[in-house]
Design brief:
The protein has 232 residues and is mostly helical. 62% of the residues lie in helices and 0% in strands. The protein contains eleven helices and no strands. The protein is globular, with a radius of gyration of 21 Å.
Length: 232
């Protein structure tokens, strides 16, 4: 690549094909040579490769667009400087790998936000790679519940909807969880075991103030800050 071509590339632009793409090409060539089963397996590889490539490219474009918006919003921020930032490069590489392993919009947005927040500077003292690894293990509902417990008041107008327990507050914020106590109890337990939530189970009753209080650990707050959009 010439110096002029390098200058035109966006700092966070990712190659159209990664090592995984080349590996898949090799696999396709090998299985195509196998009698009888080669053709169908190769076709299956094509079916998998195309959506993954489109997903990566769409996600990378969202990151690029986000960086441009940060340049407009944050005084002194220059995305061009990121090409010399090893922390940003590491997070980008980890996030791209995670993108290939999920189609869920909530997680794709969380990964994008993690990259954008890293571009601005690590939002906490926790290792970003560790937090990203935890994020990848969580389902969209885990992420929703985690963000809810960061600041329940943000989801509920306590003056109009008084609540007397964390469970009631959660069901008020997310009507889809009403009657799903077993589901969100498991989610709460998972978050607790990950060191993100300070309580292992939700009390049946408590004061309204207690129901609205955050129950995240320092680590939990750090993850929420990492995956919250800096563009809003």
């Amino acid at each position: 690549m010439t110096s002029d071509e390098e200058a035109k590339r966006t700092p966070c632009e990712v190659p159209k094909a990664t090592g995984a793409d080349y590996a898949l090409t090799v696999v396709r060539a090998v299985v195509s040579a196998v009698p009888v089963v080669g053709g169908p397996l190769a076709e299956l590889a094509d079916l998998v490769a195309s959506p993954l490539e489109k997903r990566r490219e769409a996600w990378a474009q969202e990151v690029i667009d986000g960086l441009h918006r940060l340049e407009e919003k944050v005084t002194g921020f220059e995305s061009a400087k990121l090409k010399d930032d090893p922390a940003f490069a590491s997070v980008m590489a980890q996030a791209i790998q995670a993108v290939t392993r999920t189609h869920e919009e909530e997680k794709l947005k969380a990964l994008r936000n993690a990259v954008l927040n890293t571009a601005l500077g690590p939002p906490s003292g926790y290792d970003t790679g560790t937090l990203l690894a935890i994020c990848e293990t969580l389902t969209p509902w885990h992420l929703k519940v985690l963000c809810f417990f960061d600041d329940p008041q943000r989801y509920i107008d306590a003056n109009r909807t008084p609540v007397m327990s964390k469970a009631q507050a959660l069901e008020t914020a997310f009507p889809e969880l009403r009657g799903q106590r077993a589901l969100y109890d498991n989610i709460v337990r998972d978050l607790y075991q990950q060191g993100l939530l300070a309580v292992e189970s939700l009390p049946v009753t408590m004061t309204s103030g207690g129901a609205m209080a955050s129950r995240l650990t320092v680590k939990g707050h750090a993850l929420v800050r990492l995956i919250t959009s800096p563009l809003d």
